[in-house]
């Protein structure tokens, strides 16, 4: 398809269809094929190593590939490597850091030491972008998972007082379950 109608969008279309059909190895191949377009090369005349320009397709492919590896295939180490490749190009990439932190949170269910990596990653986001609801909800999830009750309550109260809250339904529901488990049903 790419030879007939050259458009990088084809790689995403095929990968998405392979994922829907649960043919994950074929989806991985499509992401690898697209990312191969961005590999550095040696210039034939000068023999110097040249860097290919990384565009939005490069970033999008890395994020989608890492999501497949982390969320679906539970290959957290591979997802980490893919996201770090993105962060090498743009170390404060918003979605890249969010995805890396989320990957660490999933990984921490099997290796609790990864909670600290998630906290550090979310901390970088907080330091760079400020107190955005998206980041604070990630911290809420982190504090629930490591059972830091005082921090959970502090964030709950912050969210309750905020007039225009960008609600993260999944993490807010997790807060409700956590409060029930702690016997604080009046707050639920």
Can you tell me about this structure?
Strands 1-2 form a two-stranded antiparallel sheet. It is mainly α. Helix 6 runs antiparallel to helix 7 (133-145). The chain has helices at residues 9-20, 24-36, 56-72, 76-89, 94-108, 114-129, 133-145, 149-161, 169-181; strands spanning 41-42, 49-50. The mean pLDDT is 93. The chain is 67% helix and 2% strand. It starts with 8 loop residues before the first helix and ends in a 7-residue tail after the last helix. The radius of gyration is 20 Å and the shape is elongated.
What features would you highlight for this structure?
single chain; mainly alpha; two-stranded antiparallel ribbon; elongated
Q: Summarize this, please?
A:
The chain has 188 residues and is an all-alpha fold. The chain has helices at 9-20, 24-36, 56-72, 76-89, 94-108, 114-129, 133-145, 149-161, 169-181, and strands spanning 41-42, 49-50.
User: Between the first and last Cα atoms, what is the distance in angstroms?
Assistant: 53 Å
Number of extended strands: 2
Broad structural category: mainly alpha
Strand content: under 5%
Shape: elongated
Low-confidence stretches: none
Largest pleated sheet: 2 strands, antiparallel
Order of helices and strands: HHEEHHHHHHH
Query: What integer is the average pLDDT?
Result: 93
The level of helicity is 55-70%
Major beta sheet, strand line-up: 1-2
**Number of alpha- plus pi-helical segments:** 9
Radius of gyration: 20 Å
